Task: inverse folding
DNA sequence: TTAGGGTTAG
């Protein structure tokens, strides 16, 4: 809402410049009444009550420049740049405060170029002006410009020095921060804390502690920095020790501990500290709520949300993301619609919920809505929508986004850049992917992996290898995904030629990711190699095998059909096999059709993890794939009777050019008693979108007697495929036949979309499909 | 009533 009335009034005033007299709309000597009202404006703005502030402003008979400044600062803090701009122009006699505030508004609204222009034309620059430039450029990752303004500043105060220090720290330039720090001695507590926080943030706890011990005087922030540092690293013992030792605590200290316990899954401890807090603010409540959200205890979270006395945007966002992560998209949307105010996080969270849930239409719809609301599109929103474009192979839309991204002045960092790469590859546009990759300002391991996988999947093996070679010249360390990808590539294209060279390059790094190596061997069927690595890991590298390594080995042996050896390994282990290991064995028994061992493994899993819904579904599907429909039904009934619920969710994984793997969880609605309820829901949705409901058509190749069971177990996936493939009305998907894709993908089928000729593989997602490279866990690749 | 350090949500 534009407060057009006061703006017009102000503009009028400005055009008929009259000398300021007592009682004029802008008096140079504000009275007590004006000061009091200015404070009220600030209070409203701080609480996000922009309209209230505007009403007050409009109703003021006399205003001072500070009145305008208060409004200006409020607009900036509430993200209303256009209003701030208009108001600034209407200020009768802007002072240094006005200029600095508006400069700050421009800078925080990502209009850095505008901020620089304003800075140049400012009649008077004081140290605050320079300091705004230093910190705002740092906030956008432009450290060298921060340094430029820092060097330019004629007089540097404590804020300038600390601002520059923070500029380095926030951008990970910890060495430069240290050099600056060592270059002089007049630092205050804020400086010490800033550098210390930098060490904490980048995981260098020893250095942080060293500073903590050395600093001349510690304030409550110093203690908080250390407490939260340990808490975030999961070292709750040390965090608690410092918390107990702290001479002063404030709400930050308490909240850091609550959130530490929460993030490490120690719910009871978190609650105990939370209940003992002498005073709580919104952040404390949010931290406790986040604890429940993290454990998917949405009812408990909602309870807190309902009773908390002070809700802020983050509280709403916490609930929103909680519902989204629990797959409760309708609840998430309800929260989103009810929010008194939305910020960038709210939009991003809702977008992420839709895009990660595969709801492409909804994602794009919401994105449009976002534009209509004039909401600033941040990096996260860009990434979500880009990944949706990738899902539906919407190249044009993706390229438009790329353009907008550049226009918005964002540097292409990893977050958005990776989404961009994925989009180009999924659309088969190798050249633009390469360009985007080269233009990326920074690259992380995911960027490299995306490039390797992208090239490999389109059959550009040589290019993929070149990327891998280039990656080795950088400081980015290959991770498990790189290894798996490389092994896949190597196996598909080069038949084991490069494997030893590749591995030796991996071993150059200090910390070999052994799980990655073993998983990679398991995946590429390199059984003997895997076994020898497993032993050399201990003998040559002195690494003691942990349960996860054994799990890999059981998986590896099992897949190779060496079930007895896998069993023996489990017996000889220094610890009891856990459910993951039995699960791996269960998967292997399936591939090799050893139903006796499968049953045994399944029983063990149920014993150890009666709550594991994936197991029931897996076993049910195993029976179904053998045609033992009654047993399959029994498993589902048992799951239902025991009140076990599946975590819903599904995702797309692009595998090869124009080939998609689609994984869908069996129950996308939580209370599924029978699959038909779900089908009905999809039917309605699809019809609404103009698709044919053509389960019969889809199943035309399937024999009559199988049809009923097929419907029960597989048609939900067909239906979803319809929605996602965007088959136009009247164009059925053709089933190639009840084709098993591979031993492990028991419910996988191939479909060809009649219209696009896309080959689609559908399969279940369960815990055994834990490899993200699109390979089946049985070791087959697509 | 503008600029520098510590807590929550994406």
Result:
């Amino acid at each position: 809402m534009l407060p057009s009335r006061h703006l017009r009034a102000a503009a009028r005033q400005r055009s008929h410049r009259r000398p300021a007299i007592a009682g004029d709309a802008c008096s140079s000597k504000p009275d007590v009444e004006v000061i009091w009202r200015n404070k009220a404006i600030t209070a409203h703005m701080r609480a996000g009550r922009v309209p209230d502030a505007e009403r007050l402003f409009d109703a003021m008979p006399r205003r001072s420049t500070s009145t305008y400044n208060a409004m200006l600062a409020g607009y900036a803090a509430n993200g209303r740049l256009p209003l701030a701009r208009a108001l600034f122009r209407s200020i009768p006699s802007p002072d240094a405060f006005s200029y600095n505030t508006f400069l700050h508004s421009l800078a925080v609204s990502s209009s850095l170029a505008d901020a620089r222009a304003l800075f140049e034309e400012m009649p008077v620059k004081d140290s605050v002006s320079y300091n705004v430039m230093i910190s705002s450029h740092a906030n956008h990752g432009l450290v060298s410009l921060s340094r430029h303004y820092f060097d330019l500043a004629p007089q540097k105060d404590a804020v300038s020095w600390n601002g520059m220090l923070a500029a380095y720290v926030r951008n990970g330039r910890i060495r430069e921060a240290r050099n600056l720090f060592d270059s002089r001695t007049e630092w205050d507590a804020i400086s010490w804390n800033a550098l210390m926080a930098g060490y904490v943030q980048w995981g260098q706890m020893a250095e942080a502690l060293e500073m903590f011990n050395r600093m001349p005087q510690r304030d409550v922030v110093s203690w908080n920095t250390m407490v939260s540092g340990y808490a975030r690293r999961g070292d709750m013992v040390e965090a608690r020790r410092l918390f107990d030792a702290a001479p002063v605590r404030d709400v930050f200290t308490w909240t850091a501990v609550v959130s530490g316990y929460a993030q490490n899954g120690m719910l009871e401890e978190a609650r105990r500290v939370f209940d003992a807090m002498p005073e709580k603010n919104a952040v404390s409540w949010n931290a406790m709520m986040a604890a429940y959200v993290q454990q998917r205890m949405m009812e408990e979270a909602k309870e807190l949300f309902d009773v908390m006395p002070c809700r802020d945007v983050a509280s709403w966002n916490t609930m929103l993301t909680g519902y989204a992560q629990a797959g409760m998209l309708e609840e998430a949307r309800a929260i989103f619609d009810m929010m008194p105010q939305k910020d960038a996080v709210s939009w991003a969270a809702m977008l992420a919920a839709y895009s990660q849930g595969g709801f492409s239409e909804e994602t794009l719809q919401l994105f449009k809505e976002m534009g209509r609301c004039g909401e600033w599109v941040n990096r996260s929103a860009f990434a979500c929508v880009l990944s949706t474009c990738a899902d539906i192979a919407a190249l044009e839309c993706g390229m438009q986004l790329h353009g907008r991204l550049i226009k918005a002045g964002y540097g292409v960092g990893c977050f958005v850049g990776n989404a961009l790469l994925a989009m180009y590859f999924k659309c088969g546009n190798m050249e633009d992917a390469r360009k985007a990759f080269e233009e990326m300002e920074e690259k992380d391991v995911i960027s490299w992996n995306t490039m390797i996988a992208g090239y490999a999947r389109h059959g550009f093996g040589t290019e993929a290898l070149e990327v891998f070679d280039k990656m080795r010249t950088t400081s980015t360390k290959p991770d498990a995904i790189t290894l798996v990808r490389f092994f896949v590539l190597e196996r598909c294209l080069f038949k084991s030629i490069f494997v030893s060279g590749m591995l030796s390059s991996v071993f150059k790094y200090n910390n070999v990711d052994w799980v990655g190596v073993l998983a990679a061997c398991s995946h590429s069927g390199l059984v003997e190699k895997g076994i020898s690595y497993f032993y050399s890991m201990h003998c040559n590298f002195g690494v003691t095998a942990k349960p996860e390594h054994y799990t890999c080995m059981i998986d590896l042996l099992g897949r190779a059909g060496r079930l007895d050896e896998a069993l023996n390994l489990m017996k000889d282990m220094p610890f009891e096999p856990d459910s993951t290991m039995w699960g791996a064995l269960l998967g292997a028994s399936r591939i090799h059709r050893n139903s006796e061992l499968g049953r045994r493994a399944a029983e063990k899993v149920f014993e150890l993890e009666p709550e594991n819904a994936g197991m029931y579904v897996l076993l049910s599907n195993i029976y179904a794939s053998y045609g033992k429909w009654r047993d399959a039904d029994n498993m589902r009934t048992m799951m239902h009777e025991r009140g076990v619920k599946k975590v819903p969710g599904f995702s797309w994984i692009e595998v090869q050019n124009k080939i998609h793997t689609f994984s869908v969880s069996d129950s996308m609605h939580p209370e599924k008693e029978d699959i038909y309820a779900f089908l009905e829901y999809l039917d309605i949705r699809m019809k609404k979108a103009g698709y044919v409901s053509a389960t019969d058509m889809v199943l035309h190749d399937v024999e009559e007697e199988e049809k009923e069971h097929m419907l029960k177990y597989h048609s939900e996936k067909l239906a979803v495929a319809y929605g996602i493939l965007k088959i136009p009305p009247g164009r059925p998907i053709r089933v190639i036949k009840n084709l098993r894709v591979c031993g492990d993908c028991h419910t996988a089928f191939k479909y060809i979309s009649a219209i696009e000729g896309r080959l689609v593989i559908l399969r279940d997602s369960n815990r055994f499909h834990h490899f993200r490279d699109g390979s089946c866990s049985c070791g087959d690749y697509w």
